[in-house]
Amino acid sequence: MGVKFVPWILFLHLLVILCSYGDQAREFALEDGDNKVSSNIKDIIHHDEHTHAHVMNHIDPSLMVFFTLKDFKAGKRMPIHFPKRDPETSPKLWPKEQADSIPFSLNQLPYLLKLFSFSPNSPQAIAMQSTLSECESKPIKGEIKFCATSYESMLEFTHRIIGLKSDLQSFATLHQTKSSVTFQNYTILDTLMKIEAPKMVACHTMPYPYGIFYCHSQESENRVYRVLLEGDNEDKVEAMVVCHLDTSEWSPSHVSFQVLGVTPGTSSVCHFFPADHLIWVPKMQIHGSLSL
């Protein structure tokens, strides 16, 4: 069975949001047909502009995502990686009835590998095992997490967090221009939208034969922004940003603290979202803003 994973476990273990991640990010890229595979395990590091040259010598620039609220202002120029992943071509969530008919459990992995015709030691098997392990891992203090295997289950979880009667709206990063450049310096041109989000749900794509979203939430002081960025090559991106103002419950070993040189509770942590990840908030909290 030819299955194409276009995942980026950028946020699982490392990135976000509510500090639910550990020490590494994994990126899998599997091609159909000849089954060419690349699998990279990398540290995520971000940096301020004045340390750019030094950091570039030590880490993969494709995983630079962190910054602080004090650096979040019009005219700020920073290196950012935006993977060219089209949500239209990413693995799709199955209908709930179809998804519920197949076990989604680590202890059922041997059965699942046979079902999808993957050998136990294949990169696909490793990716599936990683996804199932992440989905079954314990949440951090104050966090609620769920792996959605269908659009219906994603909505059910989001409504349970934000409110059963709340109208929901989702947001994702939008690329206004098409280019093959994935990493470059971007300048913040404007803030298109600001959302005060004490209740929000972030959903991140996971590597699996069909669409899986790792969704989680933690009530704390968060801000969600849509900002207009322009790359050095004139690429335009309407980028989604989440800023976590309260990091006091985060692990001191969280990679963002190591990158930014701060400690839990002493600084905000902001990060950009890839195009195929989703942010859910109540519609009533959305308003325009020209200031950060």
From TrEMBL:
<dbReference type="InterPro" id="IPR004873">
    <property type="entry name" value="BURP_dom"/>
</dbReference>
<protein>
    <submittedName>
        <fullName>Putative BURP domain-containing protein</fullName>
    </submittedName>
</protein>
<dbReference type="InterPro" id="IPR044816">
    <property type="entry name" value="BURP"/>
</dbReference>
<keyword id="KW-0732">Signal</keyword>
<feature type="signal peptide">
    <location>
        <begin position="1"/>
        <end position="24"/>
    </location>
</feature>
<dbReference type="Pfam" id="PF03181">
    <property type="entry name" value="BURP"/>
</dbReference>
<feature type="domain" description="BURP">
    <location>
        <begin position="66"/>
        <end position="283"/>
    </location>
</feature>
